[in-house]
Amino acid sequence: MPRIKKLLVANRNEIARRILRAAKPMGIATVAVYSEADAKALHVQEADEAYCIGPAPSLESYLRIDTLIETALKSGADAIHPGYGFVSESPAFAQACADAGITLVGPTPQAIADMADKARAKEIAQQAGLPCIPGFSEADSTVTDLMAAAQRIGYPVMIKALAGGGGRGMRLVNSESEFAAQLHSAQLEAKNAFNDDRVMLEKAIINPRHIEIQVLADMHGHAVHLGERDCSVQRRHQKIVEEAPSPAVNTELRARMGEAALKLVHATNYVGAGTVEFLLDSNCDFYFIEMNTRLQVEHGVTEAITGIDLVQWQLRIASGEPLTLQQSDINFTGHAIQGRLCAEDPARDFMPQTGPVLAWKPDLHSRCDHALEVGGEVSPWYDSLLAKVIVHAESRLAACEKLADALNRTTLVGFEHNALYLQRIASHAVFQRGNFGTGFLAAHADELLKPQTFDAEHAVAAVFLAFEQNATNSAWPSSLSGFSSTRALARPLKLKASGAAINLSVTKNAGSFQVQVRTAGQEESEVQLEHWQALATEQGLQVNTVVNGLPSRFIVLPYIGGVWVKRQLNPQAVFVEDETLRSASATAEGVFQAQIKSPMNGKITQVLVQVGQVVEPGTVLVCLEAMKMEHRIAAKARSTVEQVLVQVGEQMKLKQLMVQLKEVE
């Protein structure tokens, strides 16, 4: 088989950039594809050629097999790398490549099909001698069949999408009374994500470790494993922090799990890079759960500890080269941890976020795979994953501390994200000890999600907004002397941050500002800012000041209706809205909400109420799908449904009215 000369990357953003980075040093010409929404994306700029494959906004553009094949032929690409996600685990795409005479950087259509169907994968694994979890996966099962099977297996059980992965279409069911509702929700999410609502059941193993084995296999029957990754830190059954090696796996267990993974590789005649996933219980017994027939998002931690570029090996194997690595050649050095930086708000049940990239600067001393740039936009049309922060150190504790520091030194401003949440995970004593399972995040939610105080940030915002309201020109003062003593800086300010109302007043004395802060709970504090210096930078206005006697540095970025403020070495910025000039009625908020508006851009998947219906607090009104996740929008108080303004399939915009309620007295 001839060497790959020209490679089309059938993916986008950081995934595409990772593949481009591996292909170019190998002398392979590269082709990018993009929807109109991604016309200015970094992967488009970095490839040798780029072709538009669909309108904006469009997730479907990257899923059109016919368009991708046509573009490859038109560009003269002799190979396609699907990345991870989109068509990377599509047997139909693999077959289309074969039919068109195009090399797919991945396994055969049959291997993909066998492992994509969870029931078939489990059958093959059992025949190959891998231990499997008791379950039920008969085709065309009715709700009654599934409920009967759940009773036989014994609660708790896990509902899993047969055609899926990534935690989508997966629900934990603890009792028979909740089975039907959870089944419906899982099937709906699976249908939206994979266009296939079939599910299987498995006995739920409570708080296991999620361990996956990285494998490489060539076309000549030779395969090796590259050790394990621990992916136990998950929210909503989706990985968020991954590491290699696992603190729960010793040399003997690694050898047994690696041997089991390679049995499956040989049983499926697998070719390329893949991942065999297991659950590990407290007795160190492991059970096969699935095989991902593609590169994984978390492959970077394996690369860090082995020094092996997995993407380059994918390209060599696809070109027909023999795998020269022997199992004895695979050595592990140090410890690597990855945090997935996502556009989501942990304080609001990880709700996806969208917005402009006003400031972005990754840590300079760690690996960061991303496709972010200042001036870009995070849209609702794709996955919420923005970047992968990967650190490597001599020991696991050092890697934990290095990841926490890297996240502290990461600047991303313009919308809520999970950098602080990741930083708290990396700093948590239980995580650092390494003694945890997939229930870690839920068990320590109170600590990981506790609200942060932002008195200093609020004070800096107050000075900025007070000046803006009282300035006679648009020039922002670079020092305290820039504020005229005649300006009425003491005018009370009504601000809002993180959903809470804040009243502040700013007083300027000769050498400082005094900012009185009073929250809705009538808690009061005073922040003194001295030696103020403001410098315009690429990341925004850099404010150097002394806060209550301690030197501090902030980034200030004015935005519509307020200002973003981020303190140095704190991963979380806070947006402070200026409501001073708004009427009290416009900002008043109670428990009852008459207008239920969309919290994000997305698609309506369920409408669960009708006009005239009386709903109780917590009653789900509509379900919204955004960034491949379903979000349930509920009533906050007993009320009557006056209007339902949406229907299933309708696309929502942020703050678009969906349901009108009337409070029941």
TrEMBL record:
Family matches, as InterPro entries = ATP-grasp (IPR011761), BC-like_N (IPR005481), Biotin_BS (IPR001882), Biotin_carboxylase_complex (IPR050856), Biotin_carboxylation_dom (IPR011764), Biotin_COase_C (IPR005482), Biotin_lipoyl (IPR000089), CPAse_ATP-bd (IPR005479)
Q: Which UniProt keywords apply?
A: ATP-binding, Biotin, Ligase, Nucleotide-binding
Tell me the ranges covered by the Biotin carboxylation domain, including all copies.
3-446
Supply the SUPFAM superfamilies for this chain.
Glutathione synthetase ATP-binding domain-like, PreATP-grasp domain, Rudiment single hybrid motif, Single hybrid motif
**All copies of domain ATP-grasp, residue ranges:** 122-319
Show where the Lipoyl-binding domain sits: 586-662
Cofactors that this protein relies on: biotin
Q: Name the PANTHER family on file.
A: CARBOXYLASE:PYRUVATE/ACETYL-COA/PROPIONYL-COA CARBOXYLASE (PTHR18866), METHYLCROTONOYL-COA CARBOXYLASE SUBUNIT ALPHA, MITOCHONDRIAL-RELATED (PTHR18866:SF33)
Quote the protein name from its UniProt record.
ATP-grasp domain-containing protein
